[in-house]
Amino acid sequence: MRRCTGQGIGLWLLIGLLVLAATPALAQSTGRVEGQLTGGNGNGLGGVTVALTGGGVDRATLTNNDGRFSFETVPVGAHTLSYTLGDQSSNQEIDVTAGATTEIDEQLPWEASFAESITVYSASRQTERITEAPAAISVIPQEQIERQAASGQVPKLLEQTPGAEVTQSGLYDFNFNTRGFNSSLNRRILTLVDGRDPSVPFLGSQEWSSVTFPLDDLASIELVRGPGSALYGADAFNGVLNMVTKAPRFSQGGKVQLTAGDLDTIRGDVRVAGELGPTTFFKVTAGHMESEDFTVSRNPANGGAEYKPCSPGQSFDCLSPEPVPLAATENSLTFGGARLDQYFGGGSAVFTIEGGTAEIEGPVAQTGIGRVQLLDVSRPWVRANFNTVHWNVLGYYNSRDASDQLALRSGAQLVLDSENMAFEVQGNADFANQRGRIVGGASYKEEDIDSANDRGFQTLMFEPVSEDFTGVFGQLEYDFTDSLKAVVALRWDDSSLHDSQVSPRGSLVYAINPNHSLRVTYAEAFQTPNYSEYFLVAPVAPSLTSLAGLEQALAPFLGGVSLGYGSIPFLALGNNDLEVEEITSYEAGYTGIFGPRTYMTVDYYRNDIENFITDLISPFQAELGGRINPNFGAYTPPGQLPVPVQQLILAQLRALLPPQIFAILSNAPNGAPIFAAATYTNFGEVESQGIELGLNHNFTQAFGFNFAYNWFDFDVQTELAADPVVPNAPESQFSLGFNYVTDKWDASLGYRWVDDFTWAAGVFQGEIPSYDVVSLAANYHFNDSWGIGVDVSNALDEEHYQAFGGDILQRRALAHINYSW
Fold this sequence. Notes:
Elements: H1 5-22, E1 30-38, E2 49-54, E3 57-62, E4 68-75, E5 77-85, E6 88-96, E7 101-107, E8 119-120, E9 128-129, E10 136-141, H2 142-147, E11 164-170, E12 173-178, E13 189-193, E14 218-225, H3 229-232, E15 239-245, E16 253-261, E17 265-277, E18 280-292, E19 330-344, E20 349-361, E21 364-367, E22 370-378, E23 381-387, E24 391-407, E25 413-431, E26 436-450, E27 465-479, E28 484-495, E29 501-513, E30 516-527, H4 531-535, E31 537-544, H5 548-553, H6 555-558, E32 568-573, E33 581-594, E34 598-610, E35 620-621, E36 626-627, H7 643-656, H8 659-663, E37 665-667, E38 673-679, E39 685-698, E40 703-718, E41 732-741, E42 745-754, E43 757-761, E44 764-768, E45 771-781, E46 786-793, E47 812-820
Parallel strand pairs: 1-7, 13-15, 32-38
Antiparallel strand pairs: 1-4, 2-3, 2-5, 5-6, 8-9, 10-14, 11-12, 14-15, 16-17, 16-47, 17-18, 18-19, 19-20, 20-22, 20-23, 21-22, 22-24, 23-24, 24-25, 25-26, 26-27, 27-28, 28-29, 29-30, 30-33, 31-32, 33-34, 34-39, 35-36, 37-38, 39-40, 40-41, 41-42, 42-45, 43-44, 45-46, 46-47
């Protein structure tokens, strides 16, 4: 397998040198303005329109969620800054000096609602008020993240978000999705951390146990619902989850937190950020967690037991015992990271270099071929980023060294090592006196996958795989009037894995007034089959050894040529002729802010989905004309044998093997005999629709509530009888939460109800009974340094499961103490 490690170090150095060489000097006839606006409580005031006028200048920008803003290349002299939020406004006079940054720190005693002060970035790759976003989007702000971070589980922060489908299979095994068609290894939501995709390349799914920072290091979480391939490419099928960590310059100080509780959990987290010089800032994070798990053994000989055992011949709504016991009954997670930010041009540009790693031992993941326990997994990564107002250059490298993974259903020791390296450049520019804006960019990624163990034997594929991906994208935004804007985007993606794809998106956003808007959107997106679906090689039954005698009997005719009949494996095989899954979406939405205390969002969508990738099914499907995997045809004996001998061998095989077994006899790429027992194909077309409702209301400045409701429906147009299309999502679910926040303490109480639904993903197929869960979080601050808190999941200890074949979930109560400086 091609290795990226050495290349990666050299490339980061090259990027750094290019960035330093390309950093422009400030023109001495201009200066820069940078500032932060805070509210009466001292927190950053986001969503404020900041206008800069005077001296021939007329510009405007928005403060971000921290209340920060900046203007570049401002002419020297006197200017006026005007601040507007809703019907509140204020002015300030400033002087700009040549080659210097004028810094503003203004406190505005304004009362702002949740939505008025929230800005988003991910919907159109620019900062905008949430009411102006051209997509359905939800935000988890920094203050809420900090209050609920003790669980250490990112998906838990999103459970009460409109549109979110959070399915927990184990302590750290989550499937996060929106708008239906979830799976045991969901990859329909593209997940990014500071622009880096940390997913497992072989599966395309997220490994939530490998998060390399304390959750309260997150500055914001944005969930864009609906197809996002026009800007983000492959796998932004149902949406994009964009997480941004805190910049050290704006979060200096430190925090140590110790956590303990149920499942014998012990956890310690450390975060330190500070200044190395006037333009250089650093951040270090580290943590370690040990705990038991909800996962129990399903090996009868080991005392394991589980719900709904299978009767002979039964496969639906039951679980077969696992021949292999758990190799570990505890989880151990260790992580660490470091970041360095260097600012240039008075703060107008910043170069970031950071890296980290996670070491994982013990968690169990639910997969299509059964549960797999991760016993020795290492996830190092590095990221480099150069950012200015108009340019962003990003490069990152991920590695996954998984030398010890245990398949509990088969007992196979699975190895899965991977590396990927990605680059993206993005630029933006305004035109037509800031009425229009264009965003464009290009990306490139390489991935290397190897499943060889220490003896060189491939455990999941026939051979290592190396692939590349290229994308070019552009977006045009234009304000026709003060009330109506249009956003159109287009992306072209190409890969050595699949044919070129073109993904368009268009939105119209109409502002009834600054606090109420309507939106209509059309979008197309695609999901690439993962490497498992393309290249999987996995045993599904004991190998056939009864043909060894046939090879001995035929020895006089073989001339020393081996037939390989001593042990012929029955294999589940990938299909590298698979096409991408495609979705076309039509969406209408409303966003409204009522007074200073109420925020509401309503979205309706209708999706057309086709080219579903099936679960593993029989390689012969009458509906599709017979054999469905062209890579594994009928068996042929070794080509160096004379034709009469080949015919003799085939005649003997037909006589000895049952017809249904002879039919699946095939050849591996090296010519060895195999039984192609199961494979994948594309088939199915579905129309789905749904409604997502979100409501936030503050009764007082301290006390408020939030409500979310999702309705989902689908209509299957075509499907295979061997693999019916199942969305793995409930028709209805809702959540209700209450929170109370003061300077000294805060508390939140959440309730989530999920309707019953059918789950079908690989070998796990059955009914999920309706369930509801209550969660609780509370924190008390003794002073600016010391604090304590509790976090309780499933507070009423309602035993239930959320994915068929997943763990039976119980209460998990954690208490923590922290010290900050």
